[in-house]
Design brief:
Multidrug-efflux Transporter Regulator, Chain: A, Domain 2; 2 domains; 3-stranded antiparallel sheet
Amino acid sequence: MPALAAISIDALSTRSGVDVEAIQSYQRYRLLPKPMKVAGNLVLYREDDIERVVFIRGALALDFSPEAVRQLLHLTSKKDKKCGDVLSIARRHLDDIKRRIAELDRIERTLSRLVASSKPSMTIAECPIVQALANPERRSGHREI
């Protein structure tokens, strides 16, 4: 049975180790349920939101998208379910990370080549960096972003 005790956002922040601004952003991304509103502007969270906030912080630290975090949170509510669905989400995320790393490697090679071929004494018109930015087809191997 979920805990019914209520805590303030400051207590949630302190006990989870997640700052108030991050907790509020979790709410905006609909990763954390809206708190109970009581007298005035006071809002109260459930004790079990502490674990949820820690879980969200961990998932976002691994760069899972908010949608993937929502899916993972949904799966964690089914403790008797097998790990396969979680593994599937993690594998897709890992594949995406590998693709992004490959793209960053291509960008790094292109920019390194441009920086190495540029000299401080060149005019702006001669500058290989400026020329490549103005003429993307000259960047060799780099697609437009």
